[in-house]
Design brief:
508 residues, 4 domains, Aspartate Aminotransferase, domain 2, Aspartate Aminotransferase, domain 1, PyrdxlP-dep_Trfase, glycine dehydrogenase (decarboxylating) activity, globular, 7-stranded mixed β-sheet
Length: 508
Amino acid sequence: MRFIQARWQSDEKVLEPTVFELSSGSFYSFPVEEELKKYAKIPNDLRRDELNLPGLSEPEVARHFSRLAEMNYGVDSNSYWLGSCTMKYNPKLNERIAREKRMLMIHPYQPEETVQGALQIMYELSEMLSRITGLPHFTLQPAAGAHGELTGALIIRKRHEDENERRNEMIVPESAHGSNFASAAMAGFKVIRIPPDEDGCVDISALKAAVSERTAGMMITNPNTLGIFESRILEISDVIHGAGGLLYYDGANLNAIIGKVLLSKMGIDIAHLNLHKTFSAPHGSGGPGAGAVGVVDELKEYLPVPVVRKRGDGSYYLDFSLKKTIGRVRSFYGNFNVMIKAWAYLKALGSEGLPKVAEISVLNANYALFHIRKIEGIDVKYGKRRPCKHEFVVSLQGFKKYGVKALDFAKRLLDYGVHPPTIYFPHIVEEAFMMEPTESESLRDLDNYIEAMRKIAEEARENRELLLKAPHSTAIGRLDEARASRQPILSWRMYRKIMSQQGAESHE
Ligand SMILES: *Cc1c(COP(=O)(O)O)cnc(C)c1O
């Protein structure tokens, strides 16, 4: 029998029972309870003698929650080629180190001398990020990539203000991650978009036309979100610097070039790196993340405070004295737990392992691209004649004639047990499928995913209904995605409340 996920919604009305529905009613209370009451610090008036708990045996409880846990698809479940997001495997060792009691039980208000180990981790992580990027100064405070961008954009703004320059325009290529436009706007800049050339790269003549004495800087992603390396990066850097602007690098995803290229050699002034992407800390559902920001020497005084420093005697301290700091961007020191995982990852890989991340992730992406672009109906729009880097974008426009969209394809992939890639992004590619296998995938994983794509392409031609109703095997079928993000129902209690408001006659 084929395994089917636990269900909350179903055409056949077979729904996953709640623990209360499973309950046999009887409830066994351990005799130790009376003993425990003596030690419990709960005030008398807050104690209850009766609890509305379901009556279940331990295996019933274990199985119920294991089934529910299987509703959650993660990188431990199977392939997860979510382009731009770098859903790479999160080594369990990192998790274990981050969960060490000595790491978990420290408090951000503890005196410096009692948290030397934590400061050392932050210091060493910053040092390693500097070695990887060539940018000598880092802050680990921002809590996400987008937050790092905002931090960077604020630094750029303050820098120009300090120089008495009225520069209020930020240049962002159209292929950029959506957060770039938002961060620049949030920092008070007017966003100037520039279109790609036919290779999907920055159109240099459009860039030259866009710069002026109002240019504050440019935000660039390289390889860009089409997975193509901007080989004219030095020219781009010259144009921006020549106009008096600063070059910001969106390094959310450094997988393709890590250990291979220094950002400083590309003329980058300021960059953020997502510790929760490239550096293996897990992410999803909005956090927790860490968007470390690195800067060149001339911008070091602008970083958020505090920064961790090392004294001559080997001890560490927090430095609040940066003269031009943009201030704090987050409470305390950022998401420390995420930093530990990134630190452990880098320590484990070392300078020999790190370039292999780039090599294997690029090799995997090119292997997948080579086979997937051969599937009839699938097409490459940009960079046709070039190898991709860590990710690639194909268009599924060719299936429109069968009435099948990228969304239908994506949903059907779930039935094959793999997570769909990023879809409809970047916007410059119609019916986009943005795929990033990462270095975690084995040849078997790659072939498995490619085979699923091939089979779905066949289904699209021969059995379109199957795709239009997909997924068939998951807990939830097609969501109203806009409503799911605007009106999320995140608990059983919320669900019940909304259902009772709607006078629900069934679970649906
Ligand atoms: C993920 C990503 C971001 C944003 O990072 P968050 O941590 O999600 O805020 C920015 N740029 C690129 C290219 C990304 O892939």
